[in-house]
Write the C-alpha cells for this entry.
Amino acid sequence: MNLVKLNSELIQCRRCLRLVAWREQVAREKRKAYRDQEYWGKPVPGFGDPQARVFVVGLAPGAHGSNRTGRQFTGDASGDFLYPALYRAGFASQPESVSRFDGLTLADVYTAPVCRCAPPENKPTAQEIANCQPYLEAELELIRPKVIVVLGRIAFESILRIFSVRNSNWKFAHGAFYRFSQEHCILNPDHWILNTAHWLLASYHPSQQNTLTGRLTVEMFDEIWRKTKILLDQP
C-alpha cells in the first residue's frame, strides 16, 4: 500500500449512504456563488508532503469548501485561517488555498480529516467516523509522523482510539501536548509510535465558530505551530 493506491481507493468509497447522498446533492445543486464551478463531490483525500514529520488532523470537508475543491481545507473559512498560519510558520509555500490547481505545496506537513465526506451540518455520526477510521490509520502508518496536531476534540478523540491511549490524564485542551509511550498506549511494544519520541498536540479547530468569537485567535494558532517546531526538535 502507498498513498497513491490508498487515495484511489478512498475516492471511490460509498460506505456511508447518508454522506454519499449529501455530498452528491450539494455537488449537483451548488451554492449560487459557485454555480459555474464543477464540484468534487467525492471523499476528499489527504494533502501534503508524503515525507512529513507533522500530521494535521481535521474534522471533515466543508460542503462548499473541500467538497467543492477536492483538497483539504481549501475554499472555506477554516482553510483561510489555517494556511496563512502554516505559511507564517514556514510549512506552506503560499498563504492562500483556493483550488487544488493553485500551486500550493506543504513542506514537512500532511493533513487529512477524520471524516472524508462532507456531513450535513458539519456533524458526522460516530458510525461514519468509525467507517472512515481505517483510511486515517493507513495514512498514519504510511507517513509515521513525529508530531500529530489535532484540530478539535473529535480529531483528538479519534487519535486516542487509533493508538489505544488509555491514560485518563490525556484531555483535550488548546495547546495541550502528550508523548506517546508504552505506559499510555495498549499497543505492541514494537509499534512505530512507541519506538522514538512521537507527540500529540491539540488545538481548537480553525472554524468560524471559534475564530469569529475570539476563542481561537491568530496569536493562539501561531503558538501551536511554534510548539510543533519545538516538539520536532525533541530527541
About this structure: The chain has a mean pLDDT of 97.
